[in-house]
Amino acid sequence: MLKDVLILHRGLTPGQSRPNSFEAIRDKYESAFECDVFMLADGALAIVHNKDMGLSQEQIEAMTTGVFYSLHVKDRETQTEGSPAPLFREYLALALDRGNKLALEIKGSSPQMARKTARRIVEETRGLDPKLLQSSISLHSFSVEALEEAQDAMREHGVQMKRALFWPSAPARALEMSISATVLSYLEGEYSSTEIPQWTEAGIKLAHQKGFDIIDLQEGVITPDLVRKAHSYGIEVNAWVVNNADRAKVLENMSVDHIITDTLG
Questions:
Q1: How many Cβ atoms from other residues are within 10 Å of residue 99's Cβ?
Q2: Gene3D superfamilies this protein is in (predicted)?
Q3: How many other CB atoms sit within 10 Å of the CB of residue 162?
Q4: pLDDT tens-digit map of 43-86
Q5: How far, in Å, CA of 201 to CA of 14, rounded?
């Protein structure tokens, strides 16, 4: 499988089990990473997934930078602590210095927090070379509102990054998070758990209507027809999370653009 197709989910690989960590990117060059971005109480951005820390989203967002620095990323296999959890600026500088690309997942305990986080990311990255921004950083979220806020902020600051809509695998899954539950308000009609192809196609159409560049689809729902539909709109398709090499090959043969993985890197 081509290296350029893979995006390392939270930086995980068979030999590296600390998610969203400095260890994940220290020895990686010209690779692509998916990482989670929260905004802390003092406005700083942090690279962390709350579940990896055994915390709620609200607990992460209530932390100041000083408190956040006390968190250390644990190895998923051994549970040993590694380096401190990264702040966004530090992680970004280290990643780009090594020629890596970043798929930044905008997190938030609510649509409002996701929007604030999206705007803050644009503000933190606007000083980078515009060509580097376009080629090396993409903004991903389950929140339509966050991606729209990111676009507004990018227009204000004269920068551009690709935007990607993470699409829940089923309507019931959308309702599990406050930032994705709002997608139902953008759709016409009702969808049930037995209408997954139609539901997924609705997500592709929504991404097209909103001018998003990428749609991130749960790997099990992807079909050749759905990939062709997305590509007909000029939308890239990313599959998540794929940890089976045979399935990854099938998806690659469907012309999926990128594969987000824990284990194939």
A1: 11
A2: Phosphatidylinositol (PI) phosphodiesterase (3.20.20.190)
A3: 16
A4: 999 999 999 999 999 999 999 999 999 999 999 999 999 999 99
A5: 33
Q: Place domain 3-261 in its CATH homologous superfamily.
A: Phosphatidylinositol (PI) phosphodiesterase (3.20.20.190)
Structure tokens, 171: 């309507």
Q: What is the DSSP string of the chain?
A: --GGGEEEETT-BTTB--TTSHHHHHT--S-EEEEEEEE-TTS-EEE--GGGGT--HHHHHT--HHHHTT-EEEPTTT--EEEEPPBHHHHHHHHHHTT-EEEEEE--SSHHHHHHHHHHHHHHHTTS-HHHHHHHEEEEES-HHHHHHHHHHHHHHT---EEEEEE-SSHHHHTTSHHHHGGGGGSSS---TT-HHHHHHHHHHHHHHHT-SEEEEEGGG--HHHHHHHHHTT-EEEEE----HHHHHHHHHTT-SEEEESS--
Domain spans in the chain, listed from the N-terminal domain onward: 3-261
